């Protein structure tokens, strides 16, 4: 079967294993001291692409829209085994919502050209909308499937997919070129090897700005983003407990509290 | 002076940490209980290029340098000092090939060592000679195209897992004349003997090697007859001491993490014990020990990479970091109170493992002698 050129979308996200703070003004994560990592599901996306490449030959290209510091994240993606990487980085892209992000990524895919498959994670750990994958596909006019848990080559020009839904699973066939978003169950991502790390330094990593892509300035960044985040709140999982001795006053206090909390 | 890692070193640290947490950590308990060496982990490390770091590219290596080696040992040992120790001695076993072997020997052995298909060690110590290796009695007699080896080595790391062993033996009546030989697993007359039962490093084999009329072809002599001790001591003083310091760094880092975690989580009288100065002082001491050990070790590794003299610097790093690990492991156990001696907590393992750092690659007394001798020589005009 013919080799596959696979584009993997990789989002650099804050490492949520370390404590993360939010900026209430900008409604974003304070990036200050937080390490940036590959969005966990994008490691699954990359692993799926690498496995397909190992089976059928071809090439894996990584694509990311992020500030310049994300270069190190893409270098890591190259160390995992991707062959080439594109970082779409421009101050004009700042503040993009999923619509604008997907538009820029789609323009990036067009720039890379000659692909058979685009793989994204099902969702990111920060924005977590699960919209970007399908939106990129719509921008490109590609057939797409989300929450894929298994992928097989069905024929020269199609894949056989298993998708997870709330009701159960769907077995589907999709024509190439296509876009799929993958779930955690699809595979166990490999660990970084030293041979890969050593090879990564010499692999091509391109940083492209808006002038390198055909983008309409009205459709990117805050300007191109109809979404406004109204509020952002931290959810505390700390358990509250209060001890009250059993007088009638205490019981009525308890009832009052329960009413305040909306429990009763 | 630039104290930052390169992008490659940063990735390396990240990758090895991930490997250690994902592949090594889930096996620590089993190693503690069975004391069996996790050969499958060694194989996975080999496939991932862990043993290729220092080997030149033309033999299938990565040429990443001594600092990369320290980073790997630190990250692995943070999770398991036993696997760190085994790794450090695989590196030690590779060193004579890098530094003293002939071109043919390099071509024959280095590619499989780089991939971890073959594992290595160095065998010097005998019952009659540890700190003083001139006490070695194992002898190699030349007979035609072979040397015939007879004798026993003890306390050899990876004794049962190593495929390629640099063995130091006497080749003449001269009390100071030794030679180094490449002995391969399966050679007639060679077998591993007993495995030692140690207080720490469970999961890293330390054992005996037995040579009974072991036939070693002459082409397995490394360097010339009489070069043996020099070859082994260079490997031990530059690669071995460096490695022990790397393992110590991992233990120190783990001490700091475990100490901080417990100090924050243990609540007494409504407050975490971290509010007490006595606890804080121990944590500060551990942090200081970790940072200073790191600086000493990284600098010595940097000297090695630059091809500069580094044996005394590694002696200093080895002495300081391993002694610090013993003291800091005690401080960690102390912070844990009674929990510190319970097998459910990592603190006791750090304490037991730390002491094993001291004799390996030369005791602290021997490092002191090396350091003092060099200092005294420099003082003499
Ligand atoms: C707390 C928070 C809430 C947000 N809420 C919204 C909202 O409600 N609506 C909205 O439009 N935007 C929202 N955003 C902004 C949104 O996160 C960003 O626009 C982001 O660029 C894409 O959305 P996502 O993270 O939800 O991606 P998802 O759709 O969850 O990501 C799925 C996959 O798309 C790919 N992908 C996503 N972003 C990139 C990228 N930059 N580069 C390469 N691949 C990528 C990855 O493969 C990823 O696994 C929010 C951001 C935050 C921090
Ligand atoms: C876990 C572990 C792994 C090891 N791995 C290997 C290996 O892979 N290969 C290998 O060849 N060996 C290995 N060894 C052996 C190690 O190198 C020796 O144990 C070490 O050199 C000390 O020798 P010894 O045990 O014979 O002690 P001895 O030499 O008998 O020392 C006993 C005591 O005397 C002190 N002492 C000795 N000489 C002097 C002196 N001149 N001045 C002051 N004090 C002195 C020592 O410091 C020590 O306190 C390993 C040991 C251990 C514990």
From TrEMBL, chain A:
Residues 26-217 form the Electron transfer flavoprotein alpha/beta-subunit N-terminal domain. One of its GO terms (molecular function) is electron transfer activity. Transmembrane segments: none annotated. It holds the Pfam family ETF. This is Electron transfer flavoprotein small subunit. The lineage of its organism: Bacteria, Bacillati, Bacillota, Clostridia, Eubacteriales.
UniProtKB/TrEMBL annotation, chain B:
Gene3D superfamilies: Acyl-CoA dehydrogenase/oxidase, N-terminal domain, Butyryl-CoA Dehydrogenase, subunit A, domain 2, Butyryl-CoA Dehydrogenase, subunit A, domain 3. SUPFAM superfamilies: Acyl-CoA dehydrogenase C-terminal domain-like, Acyl-CoA dehydrogenase NM domain-like. Keywords: FAD, Flavoprotein, Oxidoreductase. Residues 122-214 form the Acyl-CoA oxidase/dehydrogenase middle domain. Residues 226-374 form the Acyl-CoA dehydrogenase/oxidase C-terminal domain. The keyword Magnesium does not apply. It comes from the Bacteria. Its cofactor is FAD. Transmembrane segments: none annotated. Residues 6-117 form the Acyl-CoA dehydrogenase/oxidase N-terminal domain. GO terms for molecular function: acyl-CoA dehydrogenase activity; flavin adenine dinucleotide binding. InterPro entries: Acyl-CoA_DH_CS, Acyl-CoA_Oxase/DH_mid-dom, Acyl-CoA_Oxase/DH_mid-dom_sf, AcylCo_DH-like_C, AcylCo_DH/oxidase_C, AcylCoA_DH/ox_N, AcylCoA_DH/ox_N_sf, AcylCoA_DH/oxidase_NM_dom_sf. Belongs to the acyl-CoA dehydrogenase family. PANTHER family: ACYL-COA DEHYDROGENASE, ISOVALERYL-COA DEHYDROGENASE, MITOCHONDRIAL-RELATED. This is Acyl-CoA dehydrogenase. It comes from Desulfofundulus thermosubterraneus DSM 16057.
């Amino acid at each position: 079967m013919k080799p596959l050129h696979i584009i993997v979308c990789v989002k650099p996200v804050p490492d949520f294993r370390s404590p993360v703070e939010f900026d209430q003004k900008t409604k974003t994560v304070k990036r200050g001291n937080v390490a940036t990592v590959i969005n966990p599901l994008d490691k699954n996306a990359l692993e799926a692409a690498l496995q397909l490449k190992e089976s059928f030959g071809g090439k894996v290209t990584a694509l990311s829209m992020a500030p310049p510091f994300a270069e190190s994240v893409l270098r890591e993606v190259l160390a995992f085994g991707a062959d080439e990487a594109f970082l779409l980085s421009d101050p004009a892209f700042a503040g993009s919502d999923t619509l604008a992000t997907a538009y820029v990524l789609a323009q990036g895919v067009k720039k890379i050209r000659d692909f058979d498959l685009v793989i994204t994670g099902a969702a990111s750990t920060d924005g977590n909308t699960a919209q970007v994958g399908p939106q990129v596909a719509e921008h490109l006019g590609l057939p797409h499937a989300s929450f894929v848990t298994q992928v097989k080559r069905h024929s020269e020009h199609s894949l056989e997919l298993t998708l997870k839904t709330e009701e159960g699973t769907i077995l589907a066939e999709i024509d190439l070129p296509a876009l799929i978003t993958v779930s955690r169950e699809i595979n166990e991502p490999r660990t970084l090897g030293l041979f890969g790390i050593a090879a990564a330094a010499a692999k091509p990593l391109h940083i492209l700005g808006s002038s390198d892509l055909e983008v309409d300035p009205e459709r990117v960044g805050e300007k191109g983003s109809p979404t406004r985040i109204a509020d952002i709140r931290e959810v505390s999982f700390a358990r509250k407990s209060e001890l009250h001795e059993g007088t009638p006053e205490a019981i009525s206090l308890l009832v009052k509290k329960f009413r305040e909390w909306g429990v009763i | 002076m630039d104290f930052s890692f390169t992008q490659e070193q940063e990735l390396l640290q990240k990758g090895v940490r991930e490997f250690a947490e994902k592949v090594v950590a889930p096996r620590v308990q089993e190693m503690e209980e069975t004391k069996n060496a996790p050969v499958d982990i060694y194989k996975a490390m080999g496939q991932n290029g862990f043993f290729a770091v220092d080997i030149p590219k033309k033999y299938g290596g990565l040429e990443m340098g001594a600092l990369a080696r320290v980073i790997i040992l630190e990250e692995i040992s943070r999770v398991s000092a036993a696997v760190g120790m085994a790794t450090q001695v695989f590196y030690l076993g590779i060193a004579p090939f890098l530094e003293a072997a002939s071109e043919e020997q390099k071509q024959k052995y280095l590619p499989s060592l780089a991939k971890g298909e073959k594992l290595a060690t160095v065998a010097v110590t005998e019952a009659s000679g540890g700190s003083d290796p001139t006490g070695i009695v194992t002898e190699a007699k030349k007979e035609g195209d072979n040397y015939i080896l007879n004798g026993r080595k003890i306390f050899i790391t990876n004794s049962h897992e190593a495929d390629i062993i640099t063995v130091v033996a006497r080749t003449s009546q001269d009390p100071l004349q030794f030679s180094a030989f490449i002995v391969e697993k399966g050679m007639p007359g060679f077998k591993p003997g007993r495995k030692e039962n140690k207080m720490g490093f469970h999961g890293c084999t330390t054992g005996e090697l037995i040579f009974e009329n072991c036939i070693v072809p002459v082409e397995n002599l490394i360097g010339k007859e009489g070069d043996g001790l020099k070859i082994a001591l260079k490997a031990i003083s530059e690669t071995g001491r460096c490695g022990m310091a790397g393992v110590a760094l991992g233990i120190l880092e783990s001490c700091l993490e475990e100490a901080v975690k417990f100090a924050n989580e243990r609540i007494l009288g409504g407050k975490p014990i971290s509010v007490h100065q006595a606890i804080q002082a121990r944590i500060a001491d551990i942090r200081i020990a970790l940072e200073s050990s790191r600086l000493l070790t990284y600098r010595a590794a940097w000297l090695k990479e630059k091809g500069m003299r580094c044996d005394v610097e590694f002696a200093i790093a080895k002495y300081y970091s391993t002694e610090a690990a013993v003291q800091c492991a005690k401080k960690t156990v102390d912070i844990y109170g009674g929990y510190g001696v319970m097998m459910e907590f990592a603190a006791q393992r750090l304490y037991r493992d730390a002491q094993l750092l001291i004799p390996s690659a030369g005791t602290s007394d021997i490092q002191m002698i090396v350091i003092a001798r060099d200092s005294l020589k420099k003082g003499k005009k």
